[in-house]
């Protein structure tokens, strides 16, 4: 009999079955490792694109609207300035809404345009400038289409002129259709995201058309019933006194007449009224300027706060835009931060310390302004200074109240005498023909190659009217014509340029610009390039002879991309037009956006334009 304990017998008869682990081939292990590596690589590759997607499809741009004045009178003209910054804007389509019962845009009351530029010559004249009525009562929308021929500044500003019609308050607001185009960080054409509903507010005061009435007793006003925005003025007429209500400036310029009768000795205190103790001043150096026409010159704005600690200044300077133009404003050494806003006939400069707790004192330069003289005569730069009014110059004390300690009574104008000089346009003569030397009639048989056209196009596209300029290096001769170029079976284009009485002793260059192309300057009769589109020259080398002369310029590529309406630059407006018309075969779309002349706007045209964006500009 088995004496083994029952528990032991149970254990002895218990059978354990371990699960069998299948054998995995090394081949499958290798495939698995490769798959994991590929997956990690894919995540690494797409993560930047995913981040861009969630950050927004378009990069942002900063935009702001700045009124010339926050308060204006009825019938007064004023400007609203728009500033774009942080991105290089090549084109803008602006939709700006306003209340037409309170304001009127310049073109609505007879002006040719209400657009003017602060950043000089950055934009071309508006391609479209129209006021669009809406179904929302008196609300109208200004539609403005601007294209830049530069596209390389990351801060630009322009002004829009309006007139106040009646008392009231109204906003100027950008509509959602407003779009800004330019180049992204990788130099591809793109739209920028604008802040939503960029806006500013302007208040209209006064009655404008009705000045009201008043009466005088002797030299004193006895009755003042002038309308808001008008003030009584007594004047002597035939020993009787009459009173006239004259319009007031809502932001008057305070320029006290200097008292030349007394010149205090140094250290003699000058009594002032309503001026803080230890007051600060602004002045312009040099105290006057004598310049010739036209010439750039500098004027520095200098602050003197004595022993007072200050944190910033507001400087308003009035100037006559018929005589002067502001070219630039450079930061001085006295403050770390400076911004400036030019308006028509007025310049505002804001300067501050950079951080809380910082201050400065004593004398130092706030900014240096570069002006351009435009007209012969005498003019002035004047500080706008009246602390009781908005838009006044100020010097801000380092205290809890940010006290304005400026002394407006101790600030003087800067007088500018603009003289006719050797560089004046009246004395500048540019010869149009050389004196002496052989002359003759020339006929240039020119052969070129346009980018993207490698075979003979369809019959409808075999002629391109092309701008050709023949120019001498010494500027003694220049002739410009638009001539037809005809395509052959190899995609080459031939045209004939004829000119009479040409000086044969000079060295020449030929400029060629197709109807959808950048202008190329060519200095040789048979130019070549190692990389397509990179031909470049500076010195004119073409010799001319009387009669017919062959110019085989087909070994270089004339770049495409500056589509009608041409502005001398391939910018994002051109690229956007091509992109928005993919697949179109309409005559209007093809005439502008079909770059390889195959009768349709498609991706190949976009690729050609993006390639040409590496060069971008007409050659001069």
Description of the molecule:
- The chain has 620 residues and is mostly beta strands.
- It is built from 5 helices and 35 strands.
- The chain has helices at 6-12, 26-55, 572-580, 587-593, 603-612, and strands spanning 62-67, 71-73, 77-85, 89-99, 103-105, 115-117, 128-133, 139-147, 155-164, 168-174, 179-183, 189-192, 199-205, 212-217, 220-226, 230-237, 240-247, 281-285, 288-293, 296-304, 310-318, 324-331, 337-343, 346-352, 363-373, 377-383, 394-397, 414-420, 439-450, 463-472, 478-487, 493-503, 508-513, 520-522, 547-558.
- The strands form 7 sheets. Strands 2, 4, 7, 8, 10, 11, 12 and 13 form an 8-stranded mixed beta sheet that branches.
- 10% of the residues lie in helices and 41% in strands.
- The protein is globular, with a radius of gyration of 36 Å.
Q: Please mark out the parts with pLDDT under 50 across 5 or more consecutive residues, or reply none.
A: 51-56, 250-277, 422-436
What general form does the structure show?
Answer: globular
Number of domains: 4
Task: Please report the distance between the alpha carbons of the first and last residues.
Answer: 120 Å
Cα radius of gyration in angstroms: 36 Å
Indicate the mean pLDDT: 79
Helix content: 10-25%
How many E-type strands? Answer: 35
Give the count of helical stretches. Answer: 5
The class by helix and strand makeup works out as mainly beta
- Strand coverage percent: 35-45%
Q: Main β-sheet, in a few words?
A: 8 strands, mixed
């Amino acid at each position: 009999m088995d004496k083994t304990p029952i528990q032991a017998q149970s254990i002895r008869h218990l059978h354990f079955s371990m699960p069998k682990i299948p054998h995995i081939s090394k081949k499958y292990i290798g495939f698995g490792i490769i798959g994991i590596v590929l997956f990690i690589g894919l995540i690494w590759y797409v993560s930047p694109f995913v981040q861009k997607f969630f950050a927004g499809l378009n990069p942002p741009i900063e935009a702001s609207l700045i009124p010339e004045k926050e308060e204006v009178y009825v019938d007064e003209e004023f400007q609203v300035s728009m500033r774009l910054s942080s991105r290089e804007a090549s084109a803008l389509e602006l939709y700006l809404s306003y209340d037409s019962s309170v304001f009127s845009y310049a073109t609505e009351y007879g002006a040719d345009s209400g657009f003017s530029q602060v950043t000089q010559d950055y934009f071309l004249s508006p391609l479209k400038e129209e006021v669009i009525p809406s179904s929302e009562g008196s609300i109208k929308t200004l539609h403005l289409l601007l294209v830049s021929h530069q596209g390389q500044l990351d801060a630009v500003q322009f002004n829009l002129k309006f007139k106040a019609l009646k008392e009231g308050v109204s906003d100027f607001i950008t509509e959602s259709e407003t779009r800004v185009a330019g180049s992204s960080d990788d130099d591809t054409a793109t739209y920028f995201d604008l802040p939503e509903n960029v806006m500013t507010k302007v208040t209209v005061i006064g009655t404008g058309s009705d000045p009201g009435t008043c009466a005088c007793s002797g030299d004193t006003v006895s009755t003042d019933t002038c309308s808001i925005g008008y003030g009584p003025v007594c004047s002597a007429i035939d020993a009787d006194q009459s009173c006239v209500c004259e319009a007031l400036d809502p932001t008057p310029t305070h320029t006290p007449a200097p008292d030349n009768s007394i010149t205090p000795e140094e250290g003699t205190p000058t009594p002032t009224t309503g001026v803080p103790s230890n007051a600060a001043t602004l002045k312009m150096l040099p105290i006057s300027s004598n310049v010739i026409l036209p010439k750039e010159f500098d004027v520095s704005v200098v602050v003197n706060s004595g022993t007072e600690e200050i944190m910033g200044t507001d400087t308003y300077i009035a100037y006559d835009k018929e005589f002067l133009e502001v070219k630039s404003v450079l930061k001085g050494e006295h403050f770390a931060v400076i911004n400036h806003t030019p308006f028509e006939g007025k310049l505002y400069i804001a300067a501050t310390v950079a951080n809380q707790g910082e201050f400065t004192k004593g004398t130092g330069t706030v900014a240096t302004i570069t002006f351009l003289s435009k007209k012969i005569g005498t003019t002035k730069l004047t500080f706008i200074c009246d602390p009781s009014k908005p838009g006044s110059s100020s010097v801000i004390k380092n205290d809890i109240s940010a006290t304005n300690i400026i002394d407006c009574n101790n600030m003087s104008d800067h007088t500018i005498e603009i003289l006719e000089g050797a560089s004046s346009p009246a004395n500048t003569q540019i010869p149009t023909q050389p004196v002496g030397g052989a002359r003759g009639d020339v006929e240039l048989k020119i052969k070129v190659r346009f980018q993207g056209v490698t075979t003979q196009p369809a019959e409808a596209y075999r002629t391109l009217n092309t701008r050709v300029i023949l120019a001498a290096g010494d500027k003694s001769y220049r002739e410009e014509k638009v001539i037809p170029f005809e395509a052959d079976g190899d995609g080459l284009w031939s045209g004939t340029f004829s000119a009479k009485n040409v000086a044969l002793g000079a060295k020449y260059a030929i400029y060629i610009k197709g109807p959808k192309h950048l202008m190329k300057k060519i200095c040789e009769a048979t130019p070549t390039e190692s990389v397509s589109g990179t031909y470049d020259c500076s010195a004119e080398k073409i010799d001319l002879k009387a009669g017919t002369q062959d110019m085989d310029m087909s070994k270089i590529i004339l770049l495409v991309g500056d589509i009608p309406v041409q502005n001398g630059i391939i910018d994002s407006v051109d690229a956007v037009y091509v992109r928005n018309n993919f697949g179109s075969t309409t005559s209007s779309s093809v005439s502008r956006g079909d770059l390889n002349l195959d009768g349709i706007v498609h991706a190949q045209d976009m690729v050609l334009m993006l390639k040409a964006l590496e060069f971008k500009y007409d050659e001069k």
